[in-house]
Amino acid sequence: xxxxKTWRAYQIFEHxxxxxxxxxxxxxxxxxxxxxxxxxxxxxxxxxxxQPLWRARLGHEWEQKQHADCEYPIEVPCPFEANExxxxxxxxxxxxxxxxxxxxxxLATTERAAISEVRPWTGSLVSVGILKTEYELSVIDCxxxxxxxxxxxxxxxPEEREIAVWKDIDRAFAEPVLRTDDVxxxxxxxxxxxxxxxxxxHGVAYKSAFGEDGYNVALFNTTAAQVSSCHLFKVTxxxxxxxxxxxxxxxxxxxxxxx
Length: 259
Hints:
five-stranded mixed sheet
């Protein structure tokens, strides 16, 4: 029965596929994937037909409206149409779950999470669609036991190793995607997504990096959910939270004009 050999199994896998063999895997990576496939079965989550999910896109369209006190119609912003909110099948860009050229439908379980995922600034207009699933879906839920960081001086028991590895997997999926990221950054989660697809899953669910309550759902079939309505939102504020990662900085305020 396959199990993770170490609590650092994901970290070893990540390094191997990013820096060494990307497509032809060595035995250690194959053993990790075998254990991931087996333990993923415990994390299947069913999403019922008609379940609402949200998808956002920065920007908007314009429409003309006639006002009683104006002789001529004026243009006002309106949300994108339904087809403009959906991913382009023939022009898929690199993503956390999908490689370039293979489309994936990225959704969120809350309106807030969907808007946050497009990283808007204060004052941005964001088009948001409510989509409903076309049939019952089975996704691999990576978000279980998301909280906390696992670290061990000695190898723990198999059950604790499994929890530690899946925490790493969820953090890898949840890590925000930046346009400046090296394509290699996506490779580990893309391989895992293809693994989940190979065992019959319709997609992947993982914790949103933005907000405490939201989750992301990436569906392999871009027609598995359809837009039922579209709405336009204006971002009125963006909360910034950060922490110091530089050990050489001790929290001293910058001098005037310092940078």
